[in-house]
């Protein structure tokens, strides 16, 4: 595949000058003329990228919603960006909900033609920005919606800066601008999922005075650790899809090229992590146990300093969850409270509401109220691996044994049967002693699964497809942990250096498993699946990893090599005889 031409800049991050790489963004195309895919190569030819014609106008649609289109906003450095504002025609003194992302602000822009999977046609109005609050609903309930093209996106001036401090400062400037508009009551909120959620944390950390609340539903918050190099394994294909999709008049911060140039953590990547301690506004967050935003959603929520924060965790994919009518009404109560100052009892909403998954598309419990996460009543237990018979047990394994599998094509599983109903909710971690036979590195892909008593897999479903399980990943040369960020329940890799393996060397690794919640019924088994590749077929998102595996992987257990899975077991809240209440 032909690589895009790169342009260099000297930029300062955390007082350190770094040479950064940009590529030309996709040139805006009039949707009436179409996009000539024959001129595009590689993944760019499959990406979606139209940009509506620049057309400054004000009109009222048949539903009485006023649209001010391509309104210019001047940022602090003189850069001009453009926004479409939807608001009820005859109302003033209303709050504004901001959608800030790089995918285009009108139907036809950016990725708006990409199918919103799991959401029936007609659910979302044609005024909606991708992954964003729908003006067709919110304007009818006394809100304005601002669909923004940030710096460099669409017809906005400048270069696209994805998720960095520059983008966050621009968001601050826009919020302060929109709060002073004649129709606004001075209260501004932010809402949306995925990219539209990721930008909320970064902008909120700038503490714009008129930002009253945020609703980030599903958000990667550490681009390096959770996306570009999850576990230390390069995952650039999906990010190439995103970068290749974005349209604008100038250049785009090329995170893919930067991932190749800077494969270890540095100030550039750290600049894309929000300063969580500065986020103090009311926050309603969501997390899906089945989506790659999971780790970021929970970590951000745990770390922000707001005293008024709520989390809802669920099994569903992000899009059908966001546009579920019950969830929209729930979000309206949150926005009514903090953007319209309506005393509607929102504060009585449980701080955490979790789904406890069971199997297939069935949940054991839905929106179970909890006060904190991880749960205070958690009992951490260790399941010790035994390579001799590929099982696990609660007590340490006395004798050393080992098991190997082909590094590229093979896999190994370890099972243990529960003799009573067991709920696992929270963070797991897998501690292994590993050896590379025939190479100096290992890429480990881990899934935690549930089976019936006969070992038949009982998956959970997302968009009707079986999800491979609660996951963790690690490149063994990136095994060094960050002592400040790590906890006993969640190891966090530093990614500051590489430590290659020598022949015959056996090393311990701690692999973080993303948070989850699931019930195992008596007789069912918990399974660890370990492989040198990601095991999932036919999924619509272009997820892939550039693995570095050769020869065989060897896992050592027992004796001096205490490999184990630490699980967060949740005892019943109440128990009276045979009656159990969870």
UniProtKB/TrEMBL annotation:
SUPFAM superfamilies reported in the protein's UniProt record: alpha/beta-Hydrolases, Galactose-binding domain-like
Keyword Hydrolase in record: yes
Pfam families referenced in this protein's UniProt entry, alphabetically: Peptidase_S15 (PF02129), PepX_C (PF08530)
A molecular function GO annotation: dipeptidyl-peptidase activity
Matches recorded under InterPro entries: AB_hydrolase_fold, CocE/Ser_esterase, Galactose-bd-like_sf, Xaa-Pro-like_dom, Xaa-Pro_dipept_C, Xaa-Pro_dipeptidyl-ppase/CocE
Segments forming domain Xaa-Pro dipeptidyl-peptidase C-terminal: 332-566
Gene3D superfamilies from the UniProt entry: 1.10.3020.20, alpha/beta hydrolase, Galactose-binding domain-like
Hydrolase listed as a keyword: yes
Keywords attached to this entry: Hydrolase
PANTHER family: COCE_NOND FAMILY, PUTATIVE (AFU_ORTHOLOGUE AFUA_7G00600)-RELATED (PTHR43056:SF10), PEPTIDASE S9 PROLYL OLIGOPEPTIDASE (PTHR43056)
Designated name of the protein: CocE/NonD family hydrolase
